[in-house]
Write a structure and sequence with these properties.
Blueprint lengths: L1 E5 L5 H11 L4 E5 L3 H7 L11 H8 L4 E4 L2 H7 L2 E4 L19 H13 L4 E5 L7 H11 L6 E5 L9 H6 L4 E4 L4 H14 L8 E4 L1 H32 L3 H9 L20 H14 L3 H28 L8 E5 L14 H11 L3 E5 L5 H9 L7 E3 L3 H5 L4 E4 L11 H6 L6 E4 L6 H7 L2 E4 L3
Parallel strand pairs: 1-2, 1-4, 2-3, 4-5, 5-6, 7-8, 9-10, 9-12, 10-11, 12-13, 13-14
Helix pairs in contact: 1-3, 5-6, 9-11, 9-12, 11-12, 12-13, 13-14
The protein binds uridine-5'-diphosphate-xylopyranose (2 copies).
Length: 451
């Protein structure tokens, strides 16, 4: 069997590497129009950082895993084609700011239809609005020249930073397809691929729309828990309760459960906000404004939480940060990834720059140019600096703000840092990573989220 995956991003790359490793007899081609990205996948420094990924890729690359820019060749050869291109939020026209931009998905569908010279199974891996499979089928059917196409939905639930372990032992694999004989046969083909390493009872099969919708709803539920605990964090700060204690107390109830209850400066990442806004758009489209408003609240609470964090820094630093150096520790949207998409750090840096602070960012994995690009776009601002270490960022800073929960921040020598800061020295722990009592004992004025 031959598999081709169009889109060598955070989803396509690791997922295909895992299939190639677990199913050595399947030939896996990952294609992407971005030549630099493909070159990186073929080099010693992969385009994305994920623990365990390098080893995984090295094991299979050149054997049954290949990266190339030959999209057409990949399509022609493959029996199964995964579509893992990006589906960003539309920035223009109808649905701007909410609806998913499906231009890449549509253009991929047209390319497949144009070059396929036999029957193909098309697998939607990208997260997409419900009923996109219809669109893909429609385009394929209208251009198929008699070839048989089956469209499956197979959303990816991996989280960044743990992609390799998530792919290796997924809690479930979801495959949606049509209830026709052709659809069922296609589902079986894909089930057989995953069954190389995933226990059969963990592979769920549904109809197409249930599968598409489940991905959006899973992310909406996860994000909703974070916004819920973050809303409580504000109340904790007002009342003297400690949000981690509250989360622990409620999470012991097995009906609630302990995961995804960590209060923070806000959630980031390429999926949560985008998928919820997609869900909101979908509800509005189907005449369900109350449902739309309910879910939109999750994103609004998150925006508020990010702004609230920066506002607290300004308020605590005697209502002015103009000309003050503020160290931002961590820029990725969470630890163990170099991904900065929708990172709360972006909003925090912008708010502080707007208050005329000098903002010095340090992140162990994100390159300086990317930090500047995310915060400033094409603009320039001499007050945004990037440091090569946490110590360098902290030197001379009036305040430190922890924005990403990198492990290395837990073991910093805070007494050394304290010495190099103007007094009083402040720490704002946006991830509740540090022991505030210890920091206070060193002389810091330290505060966390919801405490
Ligand atoms: C994935 C999913 O595709 C997205 O829908 C989901 O919500 C998040 O995860 P991701 O892998 O993170 O996206 O995206 P990205 O890293 O941007 O990778 C997409 C790749 O597709 C890029 O390398 C891009 O060059 C490529 N691409 C895009 C094509 O090869 N052809 C196109 O027409 C468009
Ligand atoms: C998420 C989903 O978890 C995954 O299943 C889906 O496939 C893609 O979207 P990801 O965005 O990679 O994965 O990371 P995740 O670990 O879910 O974290 C998202 C954001 O929420 C991060 O900014 C994280 O720091 C934040 N978060 C997470 C919290 O603030 N508190 C928590 O308790 C958990």
């Amino acid at each position: 069997m031959k598999i081709c995956c169009i889109g060598a991003g955070y989803v396509g790359g690791p997922t295909m590497a895992m299939i190639a490793r677990q199913a050595p007899e399947i030939d896996v081609q990952v294609v992407d129009m971005n030549a630099a990205r493909i070159a990186a996948w073929n080099s010693d420094s992969l385009p994305i950082y994920e623990p365990g990924l390098e080893r995984l890729v090295r094991e299979a690359r050149g054997r049954n895993l290949h990266f190339s820019t030959d999209v057409v060749g990949g399509i022609k050869a493959a029996d199964v084609i995964f579509v893992a291109v990006s589906t960003p939020t539309k920035t223009y026209g109808v649905g701007a700011g909410r609806a998913a931009d499906l231009r890449f998905v549509e253009s991929v569908a047209r390319t497949i239809a144009e070059h396929a010279a036999g029957p193909k199974i098309i697998v939607e891996k990208s997260t997409i609005p419900v009923k996109t499979a219809e669109t893909i089928k429609d385009i394929l059917a209208a251009n198929s020249r008699g070839h048989q196409f089956e469209v499956l939905s197979n959303p990816e639930f991996l989280a960044e930073g743990t992609a390799v372990t998530d792919l290796e032992a997924p809690e479930r694999v979801l495959i949606g397809g049509e209830r026709t004989p052709g659809g069922q046969a296609a589902i079986q083909t894909l089930v057989d691929v995953y069954a190389h390493w995933v226990p059969r009872e963990r592979i769920i099969t549904t109809n197409l729309w249930s599968s598409e919708l489940s991905k959006l709803v899973a992310n909406a539920f996860l994000a909703q828990r974070i916004s819920s605990i973050n809303s409580v964090s504000a109340l904790c700060e007002a009342t003297g309760a400690d949000v981690d204690e509250v989360a622990n107390a409620i999470g012991r109830d097995s009906r609630i459960g302990p995961k995804f209850l960590k209060a923070s400066v806000g959630f980031g990442g390429s999926c949560f906000q985008k998928d919820i806004l997609n869900l909101v758009y979908l509800c509005e489209h189907f005449g369900l404004p109350e449902v739309a408003a309910y879910w939109e609240g999750v994103v609004q609470m998150n925006d508020w939480q990010k702004r609230r964090f920066a506002a607290r820094i300004v308020r605590t630093l005697f209502n002015t940060v103009a000309g003050k150096r503020i160290a931002i520790l961590g820029f990725a949207f969470k630890k163990d990834t170099n991904d900065t998409r929708e990172s709360p750090a972006i909003s925090v840096c912008r708010d502080l720059l707007a208050e005329q602070a000098q903002v010095v960012v340090y992140d162990p994995k994100v390159p300086a140019a990317e930090i500047r690009q995310e915060v400033l776009g094409k603009g320039e601002d001499g007050r945004l600096l990037v440091a090569a270490s946490a110590y360098e960022a902290a030197r001379g800073a009036h305040a430190l703000a922890i924005v990403t929960e990198w492990d290395e921040f837990k073991t910093l020598d805070f007494s050394r840092i304290f010495e190099g800061m103007p007094q009083p020295a402040f720490i704002f722990d946006g991830r509740n990573l540090l022991d505030l009592a210890k920091l206070r004992a060193l002389g810091f004025r330290a505060m966390g989220i919801g405490k």
